[in-house]
Amino acid sequence: MRKPFIKYLVSSPDGDIPVNAGMLDVSLECDPYETPYRVYFQSIEEFLKQDELIPLLHAASRKLDKEYSPRDEISEILIRAEKHGLLYHPASIELILGGRKVKFGLNVAVTDTGKTWLREEISLLQRLHSKYKLPYLPEVHISGELNSFVFLLEDWFEGYHEFHLTCDEERKQKMQLWKFGTGYLNLTDTQGFEIYRQASKILTLYYDPENFNYIYPWHHAAGDFIVKMEHEKNPPLPPFSKGGDTKSPTLAKGDSGGFSDKTIDVRLTTARRYRPLLDFQKNEINPLFALFYFFLHLSLHMRLDKIDGVGEVVWAKDYSVDAAVQGFLEALRGKNYFNNYPSRYEEFIDLLRSFTLDELKVSFNPLLDLYAGTKDLPVIGMNLDKHAEKLYHAIQIRL
User: Fold this and answer.
1) Cα separation of 58 and 82, whole Å?
2) Is 106 exposed, middle or buried (0-12, 13-18, 19+ CB in 10 A)?
3) Are strands 74-81 and 5-10 parallel, antiparallel or unpaired?
4) What is the side-by-side strand order in the sheet with 100-109?
5) Are residues 52 and 197 in the same domain?
6) DSSP secondary structure letter of residue 2
7) Which of 110, 147, 368, 376 lies deepest, with the highest CB count within 10 Å?
8) Is 129 in the same domain as 168?
């Protein structure tokens, strides 16, 4: 079997940057251990080449729906450093095999904290796929540990991008899709509504109403939800860099962008933990009250982001509340827990409607401990009363 050609790249807003000898000695961003790119790339290459590439070929076979064996040559492997975070240093892995291309995501954990989280995530992703058989999370293909790193080769959601809240020159909030390598894409409130609706629906679909387990933590600032859009009418703005200059032209008045729910698709890239949100004892609380607190937290956390993903904490517009409620209810109606016992759904709706506005405001208090010591907490504190009023209105009028 001929050895494949290996190419190291770094993703950038303007396209791929080939890695030269000088770049290999630069340390990974956000890495307290200052691991050189040389060690990072070489360790990834060694991980992919394990067992004569057989695990990688099996992964490609599943993705391309064709059986490949060691006799089938991988002519080229592109290893692309995509981004760097506090926990992981994700890469994309692109294979050229028999004239076809297939792409995977690769999470790489370097620090002890990151490795602990990634080990748990590997197990959790496998459990969630087995339990729910839903397409919204990446599937695990290969995982393992090598050279003191932990690796997870998983699905790459091709054509999906991060989105973040930003402010225009007049300090008006807007949402932008980060079409990496192309530029920002300004989104309308209608498009933002659809993104929040789908994100809320996804989290609710994975919520366990019997054991109260919830995919959390997640955060819009970390790019945990990603979006694919097709048939855009509003053209991208000039290329961007994370946290860079946000001064750019906006859409012409009245341009709605032309999107519908059929051209917007949302995915969740990570499932770090899956456990009850609060310290609920299964035999001591009504499951509908646990679901109520999941609902409150969903409505609250869906509104949090950072300006351009890295700046100050920002609070999403009111439409995000209606979107969260709609997505939550759509998913809830499809759950066996309610389908098998329709009266439970009506009982839960009656429970929601039974809260007065003052009672609803007080109900948020136990959730605030989740934000202790974070920059989210002051922003929540400034907006919580109005948020509760908006949510109360959505419950009383729209349910």
Assistant:
1) 24
2) buried
3) parallel
4) 17-18, 5-10, 74-81, 91-97, 100-109, 149-155, 140-146
5) no
6) P
7) 110
8) no
The CB-side HSE value for 155 (13 A sphere, CA atoms) comes to 19
pLDDT of 150-175, one tens digit each? 999 999 999 999 999 999 877 889 99
Using CA atoms, how far apart are residues 369 and 376, in angstroms rounded to an integer? 11
Domain with residue 147: its CATH number is 3.30.200.20
* Strands of 33-139, DSSP E: 74-81, 91-97, 100-109
Model pTM? 0.88
Instruction: Tell me how far apart the alpha carbons of residues 137 and 141 are, in angstroms, rounded to a whole number.
Output: 13
φ/ψ bin of 150: left (φ > 0), alpha (ψ from -120 to 50), beta (otherwise): beta
Which H helix or E strand runs over 371?
none
pLDDT tens digits, one per residue of 37-69: 999 999 999 999 999 999 999 999 999 999 987
Based on the domain organization, do 135 and 203 belong to the same domain? no
Sequence-distant (6+) residues with CB within 8 A of 77 are: 4, 5, 6, 7, 45, 48, 93, 94, 95, 96
Strands (E), the chain: 5-10, 17-18, 74-81, 91-97, 100-109, 140-146, 149-155, 163-167, 173-179, 183-187, 213-215, 225-229, 264-268, 274-276, 304-306, 313-315
